[in-house]
Known about the structure:
Blueprint: H1 8-11, H2 22-30, H3 47-65, H4 92-122, H5 147-162, H6 167-195, H7 197-205
Amino acid sequence: MSIVGTWFSRIVGAAAPPPPDEDKKDDDIKDKPRLRVGTGGEVPVFPPLAAVLCWGAGAGAWMGTGRRLALWWLWPERGGMMGNNSSATTSWPLLGGRLVVTAGVLYSSLTTVRACKTALEEAGTSPNFKHVPQITERGPFARRRNSMYLALVSLTATLSITFNSAWFLASAAVLWSYLNYVVIPAEERYLKGQFGVAYDDYCRRVPRWF
């Protein structure tokens, strides 16, 4: 979905100041339908901020409770599933494996973000929540409608492997629920109102997640 490009300019890089001839264009889109972000808006919490909050909640639960909730079915550790952080031990090969998995998912997530940003720019779509002039159907958006959100959830879930802690799996579930039941439905209603049958056809051809 093109609307989820909102947070690209904040993650990948700040947008350049608009040229003078863009001022009128900016004024023209102010009165067009758009999603509101923040308290009272259709999107209460900016998606990247929601991800950061979930990461912080997972880390806080781990450190605050003193319980790792180790994924013992993958990496048995001294102290068991409820072993505390100080007593839990692991071998260097397992630690190396965790870091390799983390690096792989991080690389894949960043690659997806860049590919989505490129697709949005090639389609001439403005990467923000204010107004979407057209549906972006190229690049990752040709395979799934929420590729960037999937990258966020995948990265959050991978932290459970990185730190061998189920707290981050819970954080990923919370993030997915927020995106799937709050953010995405709001975006879909907006895009349905903007593009009608064309968007319905896009939804039939391209899945929301997988």
